[in-house]
Amino acid sequence: MSFLSPSNLSYIGVDIGSSSIKMVELKKVQNKVALVSYGFSDKLASIYPDANRLDIKAVGSVIESIVRKANFSQSRNAISSLPTFTVFSSIINLSSKLSDKDLDSSIIWEAKKVIPLPLQDIVLEWQKIANDVKLSDKTLATNSAGQKVLLIGAPKNLIKSYAYTFKSLGFNLVSLETEILGLIRSLIGSDKSTSMMVQIGASSTNIFVVAGGVPVLSRSIDIGGLAITKAISKNLQMDLEKAEQFKYDLSGQSEKGLPKMIIDTMGPVFNEIKYIMEVYGHKDTNDIQKIILTGGSAMLSGLAESIMELTNINVVVGDPWYRVSYPVELKPILEQVGPRMAVAIGLAMREYD
């Protein structure tokens, strides 16, 4: 679905998940970021047979289908995401007295200790963390004073697979980013307070703590929307297609409280949220000021209320469109699909921040 005239200045965010692909095209119009088009497909069974290999044929076919059906513009500028499970990240603590040259060599030395692959097989990036960003005692091996650095590494062969895929489709791959950077851009923006983000995907749930705009802690649990669908199917004795529809019908209800079958399925996720709250200090200290839900199952009726009761912290479903201009008549549908499009929106916004 295309809403603006084609422009080479627009950018397309491409979020490739374990079972779906989401795409959003944005452009700058009178100092505002405006929606050009969006589309998604849930027709991928599994495009990651292993962490370092793309099913290029499947990805390419689905991307071409989305572009064609959603009437994207002629822009071929794309920013894509690397799935969380393929990326290595860690925070290290270095002496604040190091020169820039010594800092680079020290980062390489420390990276060898925390990244489980040879560095020659990794594309490594790092970012200095401001001194006023609060980190928990368990985030670092030592929490002594010094220069804190966020390390992010991804396998070179995975990156080459992405580059080949997009080139074969005629796209200019402007950048590759981790999912969390897209989420921070679309859901948090310039807010420097400490937040927890709970991203409920199809096959897993990622939990991040973001402080000062920097992801300082992440966890992943192999439970997501598909596990909820299977629980509904088993308990209500219906096939998966009907169970999936039942789950989406729950998302549109206003009643509070999750069904017991969903609470039981999401138990490990709730336990992980409680653990992270403990890592960041007792819940009464309010070190984490809010929890933001995103992903395809974020709008399940009663989910936000259940987590709020568990943590005693404000819980909201994130709105990734809040900095994007779009036709007002699209608001109902965009609100409905927003949580699943959050990564793609944040990726497309990269060149405008």
From TrEMBL:
<dbReference type="InterPro" id="IPR050696">
    <property type="entry name" value="FtsA/MreB"/>
</dbReference>
<dbReference type="Pfam" id="PF11104">
    <property type="entry name" value="PilM_2"/>
</dbReference>
<dbReference type="InterPro" id="IPR005883">
    <property type="entry name" value="PilM"/>
</dbReference>
<protein>
    <recommendedName>
        <fullName>SHS2 domain-containing protein</fullName>
    </recommendedName>
</protein>
<dbReference type="InterPro" id="IPR043129">
    <property type="entry name" value="ATPase_NBD"/>
</dbReference>
